[in-house]
Amino acid sequence: MPATPPKATYRVQVRPGFDLDATAAIVDYLADLGVSHLYSAPLLAATPGSQHGYDVVDHREVNPEVGGEAGRQRLLRALRDKQLGLVVDIVPNHAGVAVPAANPAWWDVLRRGRDSAYADWFDIDWDRGRLLLPVLADDPAALDDLKVVDNELRYHEHRFPIADGTGDGSAGEVHDRQHYELVSWRRGDAELTYRRFFAIAGLAGLRVEDPAVFAATHDLVLRWAAAGEVDGIRVDHPDGLRDPAGYLARLRAAAPQAWLVVEKILEYGEELPDWPVDGTTGYDALAAVGGLFIDTDAEGDFTALDTRLTGQHTSWEDLTHATKLAAATRLLAAELTRLAALAPEVPTEQARAALAELAAAFPVYRGYPPHGARHLAAARSEAGRRRPDLAAALDAITRRLRDPDDELGQRFPQLTGAVMAKGVEDTAFYRWSRFVALNEVGDSPAYFGVSPAEFHRFAGARQVRWPASMTTLSTHDTKRGEDVRARLAVLSELPGRWAEQVKAWMEYAPLPDPSFAHLLWQTAVGAWPIERERLHAYVEKAAREAGASTSWADPDAVFEQALHAVVDLMYDDPSLHDELTELAAAITPAGWCNSLGQKLVQLTMPGVPDTYQGTELWDNSLVDPDNRRPVDFDVRRELLARIDGGWRPPIDTDGAAKLLVVSRTLRLRRAHPELFTGYRPVPAHGPVGRHAVAFDRGGVIAVATRLPLGLGRAGGWCDTALSLPVNEVTDLFTGRVYSGGETPLDEILADYPVALLAPPTASVEAAS
Length: 768
Description:
By secondary structure, the chain is α/β, with parallel strands linked by helices. It has 28 helices and 27 strands. Helix 11 crosses helix 12 (333-340) and helix 21 packs antiparallel against helix 22 (557-572). The longest helix is centred in the C-terminal third of the chain and has 31 residues, at 574-604. This is Malto-oligosyltrehalose synthase.
């Protein structure tokens, strides 16, 4: 663990349009909000115009499009002036190669091939011939558009180097002499000769297991850490690396004082490996916290509804097996081919089929010691059940995969993580629509909510094992914003009304894909009111990700026209618009209650809480790029100033109540970390105790309301109470003082559905 982990972070999507100077300009606001560290998107030079920074093209410099080194220095001065630290995001798995001229190392590899000094940087299968680049149109005559210009090969806007001594003749003749071959974009998934990030040809895999590659790609960030200019490092996608444990050991040795968190997505019940890190980036916490506000009793109702709407019973296990198998054999066919070639003792097609089945049946993203053997055994059993005809091939491949020194055993885990991500996150989450609030990174739609007892076990275990792990509710990768999910959770308390309403809507505005229609209506209700163009953009992306009725590779114009027509009806048909608006308005107050509850729980539970940019107010964002939209920090400054002036905002005013909860909680954590060093559930005694979740962190007690509609139907808090400490405590949100003992919840939660109870002296400091 680092000397001093952050108290709380705030994630900013530094990018062109919101550069390092714009980030420096909000540092004073972040300090007022209560965070201890700015948590930045990747800062190294990225593909020109990149809006996310995960496509690094030059590890030697700060992205000039966000202000370069001078901008970084100005940001550092602003942070130091407010005594804030910096956490940076790094991308060890891959580099951006979509614009070859922007990446000096890739450009040199294209020009010199195996003789390039950078040939070992990228995970290229040189034995399969020329390096294939899938940039051409799907047209046999596409190469006719190739030209030689300024000693470069040009294909429309694409530029490629020409090897020395190979530039004479026609463009086609020059092309045939290069170390690379330009091919149709459709050949990419099946034939590429380099490892990619998932199925993105513009992101080429790096070989950071090579100490020289590690040193070259990490030198700048590690110099920042050594100089005390970086306090924490977030590691993107460690599952893609050949040797994550070895990589993280090397990174920890190079940055021993850094707070180190990994974007490791854990399946339900899975434990983080015993790596030299401080924890994950918080998806495990997101799932536990979000599930706490879902009524687990409604699972049967939503399963029955899904069956009625789709006309069939859908098995999550069968669906994900099918989508993962498709990812392995189609999107990741090139990677599958490379692995099959490593098992020449098995006929090629049988090796491909066995590897694909094992990847589809693998129960987690990737197996790691000591549990990796167990996961492999489970995958072998399931694959054998589904494909008994492959028994001999499965046995032969599995024997190889058990050997950690076997190259096949080292590379196969890189495939399983990609298969899980593409097959589940990016496909099944858009096809399975039983209850889409659960279709979230790190969550599992197969588990319908989390009980308070289960949450307390989870939080208590975090306090013991991973007290400095990050917690979050929203990231740039979440499928829906935290407040959308909070509002959708209300539907779990209204299964009958929702079933009646969505059935009527789907009959009134039918789609040929009823499963996707159910996802569409849930998303609309969860985000309403939402600008028309945002919803159009979302449904098109979501439908293509689902890949059931349309797709990215082969868009179905007829289906997409019907889909957009339904969206337009939501805005243009008066009765439909009114019904949608009415239902959204009816569940919004309970959604706000859930939002405040899950935010307080996330900010106070064991771990380092992160606030994603803008989510300190209500945030009804959908999947990226929607969740990367500009944030109005001026509005947030003004509201925070009013709160600091004594205003106690009503729950229905601009999200200011959420800002009150965020600012008071973060300030308390920053000023008094000693109050957050333990974990003890605080039970509610009385007839509606299941509607409260409360815990003592070692001096401060968080209290939140769950299932608010059920609470209202029960007549409110009735005679339900909490046992408070003997000493006085003050609620940071209202200023009310409680003298301890059995205290009725209708007193504690009279103004807000949440309370944060702290010693009076700490409360005064946190409010200022």
